[in-house]
Amino acid sequence: MGLEEKVRALLEEAELKNRKAVPEAFQGITKERVRHILTLIDRCTDDMVDAVFALIDDQQPSWFSKTDSSLYFCDGATTAHIGAHIGILQRGGIRKLDREGRDHWIKPLCEVGAIQRVFLLADIGKFIPGHHIAKSSYTAYRLDSDFIELLKASPTNLDQKAAAWVDGNAVRKRLKLQALMAVEASRQIDKKHATLIKTSIDIYVTNFLPGFEVLYIDDNDGDRITEVDRNRLRIAGLKLTLDDAMPDVLLWKPGTSIFWVIEAVTSDGEVDLSKVKLIKRFLQRTLPDAKVGFTTAYRSWRDVARRQGKHKNLAPNTYLWVQEDPSKHFQIITYDEQNLNHPIFY
């Protein structure tokens, strides 16, 4: 059963028991209080309000399967978890909020220190600060403890506390502390995803894609698009918006409208039909004649079997490359695309 089905089951169970799926308040904090605080710090939209409300949920057990049984939703939740909490539990819909919307309802609150990035160490079922493997299913978010205290503050000095909390130096100090904690925590993590991206560029691109140069690399979950990245994209004739889904690696053959995408898979994120559609939409919005190739990279054949044995989601006419078997790559061809009248013989 997928996440959306599980959350809909929670909603249906509440309806059968004639009770609300979510209470009026978590930890004594109502949505009205959340909205008031977010208005004071100039970070208030309906999605942001509901995201914060989800992250103070101390009643739902953690939706991660590999956590300590004493942990709750508020201890750490993925973008998908938060989106399902908002779209299904809170709003009674049938779908979660779009993951790509996180730049609108999570990132602005991370920037001011209200939300922290955390990572689940699956082997011990605990969260540590920071996002250490980009696009991992174990990257999550939780509210900063100081921000929770602000949400709980007495009405008599609420405005004063809010003003102090958003003071620039306080925010910078808080973010600096989080960054230091994340650096320390990252020592516990093997950055397999970033390593696979680097190997794909150093080996695969060098041998199979001569003439292409790197436009963009996404090997972290922080500020994913830098000004340098935007300048490179502009030179190539591309314009990025918040709605665009960027790949792990975007390559360009200078002087042409030919591009190549690499998705490095250590947990999920293959080049499937949806990814092909999104990337083509992004490229052809400003370059209608743009052409693009795709490669899904894995670390090992074992990883290929683990993912494709279950999902079988590699898009036709894309390529597969395996780091431990680097001297060849494989084209994905469906049965009806083969020219059976002209087989290849050795």
Order of strands, main sheet, comes to 6-7-8-9-10-11
| SSE string, helices as H and strands as E | HEEHHHHHEEEHHHHEHEEHEHEE
CATH class of the largest domain, named Mainly Alpha
Q: What is the overall number of helices?
A: 13
**What is the SS-derived class?**
alpha+beta
CATH topology title of the largest domain: Arc Repressor Mutant, subunit A
How many discrete domains? Answer: 2
Low-confidence stretches: none
Strand content is 15-25%
From the structure above, extract its key features.
single chain, Arc Repressor Mutant, subunit A, Trna Endonuclease, Chain: A, domain 1, 2 domains, three-stranded antiparallel beta sheet, 13 helices, 11 strands, 39% helix
Could you give a quick summary of the protein structure above?
The protein has 346 residues and is α+β, with helices and mostly antiparallel strands.
Description:
There is one protein chain. The chain is of the alpha+beta class. The strands form 3 sheets. Strands 6-7-8-9-10-11 form a 6-stranded mixed sheet, with helices on both faces. Helix 1 packs parallel to helix 4 and helix 2 crosses helix 3. The radius of gyration is 23 Å and the shape is globular. The model has no long low-confidence stretch (mean pLDDT 87).
What secondary-structure arrangement, pairings included, does this model have?
Elements: H1 3-16, E1 25-26, E2 29-30, H2 31-40, H3 46-54, H4 79-90, H5 102-105, H6 107-111, E3 115-121, E4 126-129, E5 139-143, H7 145-151, H8 158-165, H9 168-186, H10 192-208, E6 213-217, H11 227-235, E7 249-252, E8 258-265, H12 273-286, E9 291-298, H13 301-308, E10 319-322, E11 329-331
Parallel strand pairs: 8-9, 9-10
Antiparallel strand pairs: 1-2, 3-4, 3-5, 6-7, 7-8, 10-11
Helix pairs in contact: 1-4, 2-3, 3-4
